[in-house]
Amino acid sequence: MRTQRQVVDYSLQRRAVLRDVRDGRISALEVCDASPYLKNAATFHGEPTDERCPICRRDNVTLVHYVYGDELKQSAGQAHKAAELSVLAMTLRECQVFVVEVCRSCSWNHLIERYLLGRDALGDDEPPMQWKTGSDSHVREGRR
Ligand SMILES: [Zn+2]
């Protein structure tokens, strides 16, 4: 999505947790602790993936997008479908999205990434694409 920014990737932490489980340093029970609320969100708002659960390998993991932001008022912290995110990105100035991976079989869950979304990204701090890629961009930038 074009307006995604300040993306924080948690795949290293995820890999470290999975390694600890594999090596027996932490038990699978400790990491398979998705709340009923989170599993519900995965069922009703989750985005299915082709990726097998790294713990039980019985089911594919589902991605849940939680959206936070002052402009959301009482709906802050709710799960949203991926399709709804593009609408939020165009209507809100700024919101924070947390992407959580959930297995509905064994309750494995882990934060995958978080990022900011919203119209603020279309503002002055980031020049439009044609400024970066146009063959005469140096001329235009010189005039700025
Ligand atoms: Zn699982």
UniProtKB/TrEMBL annotation:
<protein>
    <recommendedName>
        <fullName>DUF5318 domain-containing protein</fullName>
    </recommendedName>
</protein>
<dbReference type="InterPro" id="IPR035169">
    <property type="entry name" value="DUF5318"/>
</dbReference>
<dbReference type="Pfam" id="PF17249">
    <property type="entry name" value="DUF5318"/>
</dbReference>
